[in-house]
Amino acid sequence: MRQITYRDALREAIEFEMRRDPRIFLAGEDAGMMGGANFVTKASFDEFGPTRIKDTPISETAIIGLAVGSAVTGLRPVVEITFMDFMGVCMDEVANQAAKMRYMFGGKAKLPLVIRTVNGAGNRTAAQHSQSLEAWLTHIPGLKVVMPSTPENAKGLFFSAVRDDNPVVFVENRMLYNMKGDCPEGEYIVPMGKAEVVCQGKDVTIISYSKTIHTSLSAANLLHKDGINAEVIDLQTLVPLDKSTILASIKKTGKVVIVHEAVKTSGFGAEIAAIIADEAFSFLKSPIKRVTAPDTPIPYAAKLEDEFIPDENKIINAVKSIY
Amino acid sequence: MQINKQKMFSMYKTMLTIRRFEERVAKLYASGSITGAVHLYTGEEAIAAGVCTNLRPDDYITSTHRGHGHLIAKGGKLNLMMAELFQKKTGYCKGKGGSMHICDMSLGIIGSNGIVGAGLVISVGAGQTCKTNGKGQVCVCFFGDGAANRGTFHEGINMASIWKLPIVFVCENNYYGISGCQREMMNICNISDRAKSYGIPGLTAEGNDVLAVYNATAEAVERARSGGGPTLLEFRTWRHRGHWEGDPDEWRKKEEHEMWLKKEPIGNFSKFLIENKHATKEEIAQIEDEVISELVEAINYAKESPSVSTDQLYEDVYFKG
């Protein structure tokens, strides 16, 4: 299969959908000529121009308001919040408007909107440009939360997100934009709410999503050399969550390590651990382990930031501690 | 601007409907039939009526926590509103929204809103839809003096101004956000002065004079429909009741309150209609009768409607298509 970058995979999906459906428009800070802070749609501006790709002022609140108001009246906005860290600036519009309107209005409103945003440490941009705040979003009923890990699932999940009639937060990892991987041409769907077993194994289950899938796979390879066959599950979507794939794997292996780049306390891993304890307790052969970032802000210095990010060794140690 | 008799009658009836609707709501709230947070619009009816009489059915409005008047003026059905307040399955939101979240998408009512100032940015999206549709639709964004100090005021009006969106921002300045007085919360008298900083027209007018409201809005709506972009209108008014039903309302000055009661919009407008021979006393009385009978019907509908069922708790979180 051909290989393209995560960035180009996203651009292909966005352009395909914009050609297919004139109701779709993009908006965000530097979204126009620049194609967003990470240049994802830089090549798209010539084709779609400023009426379909709108440069906005630095107004996160108004960007989400724009999405909510235009979605509820019949358009299909795809808006960008440059970094997930800025979600706090527009949280009312995300949590109290986008997520709740359908319910508050007794099912009379549809909000087909996508909020593209960016997480991920590793670029030395410190505490306000690197966070993984997905648990803020998964805690709000009414939102869907997608965190793709590869060019292939990023593209396929974008098709699903933009065609969904609910508000979807689509979290892209900045450290993956230049990563190349297999990616089909044209249109295909990766459904939201479906996890993927990316590595089969019988001894232990490693559950992760977004960039730490790659760390988990590399840990699984190293563990294999030690005779431990790890199964790795890429959740792909946090809400809705594919519980059955998780539980089926736990029933097979009886051991689990949950990995994410978000900090530990009240992170999404706690939710997965609770589900497993609740619904597969009798299959567990050892305590549930979590490998996460520590409960600290993200530091600037490379040595400190590298210590913050979960790596292969931490995953391997966690697996061996229950093996 | 010439306003024909039919329009004046229609505005009078709208104002009276809002007043009588809310008088019943206040009583039903006091007796426990209606619960929760209810914010009455009593005293401000001329603004909703004067503004919405300029609107087409396919125009949009964003409303506030004090939304009953806006909904009724945009065509909201009294029986569905009352059923919602009565927590009934037949209510506008199937009993899940209550007073602060009533919407009617078929009438372009994008919802009342429990967050002060939220409509200022949501209206930008509706304005974007209007512009994209190219059918001359507009969006009216209602908000209060308190909301004018939120960041959404700046972000929303700025974005609307740069994209020349067809939005009329209507500030209902009733001088108080619960206990906080406007003169202590901003260093200017006229909120419409802020229009200058966005390069858009701004105007302050008497909000208890329905004809003044109608005329000011007509110009702003026409500008928006014809591609001239947004306008910031400020209408001075007064709520006759506390911020919410149950507010001890000890925060506003008595003299101010009494002065404003003399400027009460509905009685003054009926006097104007009769004195200028636009209406007879009999015609005014007939409108009153019509309003009361529609209201009785709405209350009966609400009372007789089935209650919500517990399975509804789990419905409508997501669209399942």
Descriptive overview:
- The complex is a heterodimer of chains A (323) and B (321).
- Chain A is 37% helix and 20% strand.
- Chain A is α/β, with parallel strands linked by helices.
- Chain A has two domains: 3-182, Rossmann fold; 196-321, Rossmann fold (3-Layer(aba) Sandwich).
- In chain A, the strands form three sheets. Chain A has a seven-stranded mixed β-sheet, sandwiched between helices.
- In chain A, β10 (204-208), α8 and β11 form a beta-alpha-beta unit.
- In chain A, α1 (6-20) runs parallel beside α7.
- The longest helix of chain A has 15 residues, at 6-20.
- Chain A starts with a strand and ends with a helix.
- In chain A, 56% of the residues are buried.
- The mean pLDDT of chain A is 98.
- Chain B contains eleven helices and seven strands.
- Chain B is α/β, with parallel strands linked by helices.
- Chain B has a single domain, classed as 3-Layer(aba) Sandwich (Rossmann fold).
- Chain B has a five-stranded parallel β-sheet, with helices on both faces. A two-stranded antiparallel sheet of chain B has the order 4-5.
Give a short synopsis of this structure.
The complex is a heterodimer of chains A (323) and B (321). Chain A has 323 residues and is an alpha/beta fold.
Features:
heterodimer; A: alpha/beta; Rossmann fold; seven-stranded mixed sheet; five-stranded mixed sheet; 12 helices; B: alpha/beta; two-stranded antiparallel sheet; 11 helices; 7 strands
